[in-house]
Design brief:
The chain has 4 helices and 25 strands. By secondary structure, the chain is mainly beta. It has a 6-stranded antiparallel sheet with strand order 20-25-21-22-23-24. A hairpin with a 2-residue loop joins strand 21 and strand 22. It starts with 13 loop residues before the first strand and ends with a strand.
Length: 282
Amino acid sequence: MFDRRLHAFRPDIAEASLKGKVEAGRFVEGEKARIAVPVAPLRPAPDAIRGIDTELLFGEDITVFERRDGWCWVKAESDGYVGYLPETSISSSMSEPTHIVLPQRTFLYPEPELRKPYVSVLSMGSRVRVTDAVEGPRHNRYVVLEDGAAIFEKHVKPIGEIGEDDYVDIALRFLETPYLWGGRSGLGIDCSGLVQLSLMMAGRSAPRDTDMQAVGLGEPIERQELRRGDLVFWPGHVAIMEDPETIIHANGHTMSVVRENFEAAIERIGWLYDRPTGYRRP
């Protein structure tokens, strides 16, 4: 059985790689495009009132299988997630990005000057094309993008140079970030989004949703083996071990990313839902 979250197929159209595996009216290779807005919610249907499954970030690559009535049916190149987003969210003409945004979020300025009104906010993980580096007033250095906008130079890094940081340290930058179901950005994030984005910024890939991570991310371990960076799973939830006594997680109880005592979390969550169902080392 194919998962609609990871395989693009409908009775009328499907991705070409599924030919001979599913029935569809036609099979298409799709066209390459990139996300052209700071954060693009990806939905299970072309309907703005539907809840979001995940989010795609500025500059991320996608394959577009269909454009219809202002919506696009797409697949994310990073994790293979399939869904619908507004056609205004994408561009087929954006240049190949060169740098990735490092902090939880950063501002885009119309020129290299921090006193100018910002024009946009980009999340950690957003991808931009840098064309120049300049010194602005007060000796602050900025990078200039292909459209002329500017970002503080220390807030970006060449894409090929990420991967040296401890992903737990990256996750800790999100403390107090608002919880958002399906969120995957510095503006709002959910539990599995926190795991995925933090690992991505450490140069490692991860599935998007909790159930996918619980069976396909790293290796299973026993509770007594838990150490920093390991993952704890509950039904529909995941947390990161900061140390043997403390977890970091985005959760609906506080509606934010928090540190919490591991044993206290087990008791609190178990009272309403269940005990942990598994442990993994990514």
